[in-house]
UniProtKB/TrEMBL annotation:
UniProtKB keywords: Membrane, Transmembrane, Transmembrane helix
Keyword Transmembrane part of the UniProt annotation: yes
Source organism of this protein record: Nesidiocoris tenuis
Transmembrane annotation, as ranges: 49-69
Protein name in the entry: Gustatory receptor
Length: 79
């Protein structure tokens, strides 16, 4: 394991054990987690929830919403 990965793992463990909330207020630690973007969550090893999946879900929702808005704005034919 590289030194960078070991540092990230140690910092993640310290931040997760943060009881008093002192690390949440530190902008450097917060920025480290935002910029790093290596966090991965797994649903019991089956599906990995990462930024790629989040981006894909967001794009799908926006596309679906745009289609719904287009159908909602189209004139209806009344007889």
């Amino acid at each position: 394991m590289s030194k960078a990965k070991a540092f990230n793992k140690a910092l993640s463990n310290i931040a997760l054990q943060n009881v008093k909330g002192q690390y949440e207020k530190n902008p450097h630690i917060t920025m480290h987690f935002v910029v790093r973007k290596n966090l991965k969550f797994s649903t019991y090893g089956g599906l990995t929830l990462n930024y790629r999946l989040l981006l894909s879900l967001t794009a799908s929702c926006i596309t679906y919403l745009m289609i719904l808005l287009q159908f909602n704005g189209s004139p209806t034919r009344q007889e």
